[in-house]
Amino acid sequence: MAKAESIISFENVSFEHGANQPILDEVNFSVRRGMKVTLMGQNGAGKSTVFQLIAGGLKPESGKVNVVNGLTIALSCQVIPREQLTLTVREFFAKCFATKIYDLDPRIDAVLEVVNLKEHKKVHDRVMKSFSGGEQGRLLLASALIQDPDLLLLDEPTNNLDRAGILHLTKFLIDYPKTVMVISHDADFLNKFTDSVLYLDIYTRKIEPYAGNYFDVVTQIAARVAKENSQNARLAKEAIAKKEKANFFAMKGGRLRLLAKRMRADAAEMEESQVDVRREDKTIRPFTIPVQDDLVGEVINISGVSLRRGQHLLLAGPNGIGKSTLLEAVVRGKAKGAMIATGVRVGYYRQDFSTLNFDDTVYESLMAVMADKSDQAMRSIAAGFLINGEVIKSKIGCLSEGQKGLVAFARLVLERPGLLILDEPTNHINFRHLPLIASALDKYQGAMILVSHVPEFVAQIRIDEILDLGKNF
Q1: What residue ranges define each of the domains in the chain, with the CATH number in brackets?
Q2: Cβ neighbours for 74, distance < 8 A, ≥ 6 positions apart
């Protein structure tokens, strides 16, 4: 059977964000019609940039992005652009099309069914920012699906989706007859429908193609690393042996010196033949979130539930019930029936990262929350969250969503809060980091309120109380 045609290909594509921020270095790959492809890589590797290059939102510095004539492409981003938050649902979906669509409302209704957005009737005139984070995620996904494109680009589509929503999306993608490329850190989700992986290596800035799903790729990479390490060990051993013989013959003089010279050349060639072993994704270091020193007594009372030092509350309820709205009101001191004790320092992790000033550099953002402004202490904490010298000089707004999440966690460590409020802290975060984050939250000795739609994550954290907004409000 003949192979399907290539609909997208990169030819020696290089790209960088500003000066000294290279993302891609002469990348080559192709995607054939009908494939279901995962694009993988560490937070900040440039996966979303690849999608923007495919969709035409960005242009390469050099090389060529080839798109087959007439190909329709739809991209679902991770977050709704800020300038679109004031649009109505109808206006938001109308922007998906180059020409006026006369049956737009029925199409909207149909696609909201696909993304399992409940109570979607008569939402056409609602403003986008009035929806919860989970509902906004479903609307973003729907905005791509409504276009019925030849190539569907989904950037972290499972963020904010509950288990039912993920199952709904998985079935849709399995049945989707066209080409799909997905960025996701959810391995279980990916393994159900993808047949190949493009791995963007943050170190080499190349894209490596692999056949199979995520687990297949892990196996292939492990085998490759073992083979490369074995080969390098053998070459290193032979090079040492050659050098030792060369030293021995060199001391004999005469013709043996020429032999020693050739042996040294052979040893040098063996050393040069050693390959750079593929470096695995780095994981953040284990960490703890220090608690405010003078924390005593009741920290917060919310709807009759009292939290003291060391007590953890899970705020539950379906998407759209008002969990994020309640948390924001609590932090601002405007929530009815909620009172934070005087003097309690609040560490607030928002799923949209609106607690971060996008115009600040990472350095400025981290230093701003420190009581004792220690450059050395700040950089040490930052390094544990994979925030290196280049990233620390970047503006928050230039970071990937995953990197913003790591900056937000680094700020919590430096802030030393007495009350920790976390709204969907798993969104955008590499799944390799999640066990370490769960461990830090489990051990946190202050009071904590958590919202999360990921039961596997919550199961790793000690929860003392559950407040279900669907039942209690």
Answers
A1: 6-218 (3.40.50.300), 225-273 (no CATH), 298-472 (3.40.50.300)
A2: 96, 143, 144, 145, 147, 149, 151, 152, 153
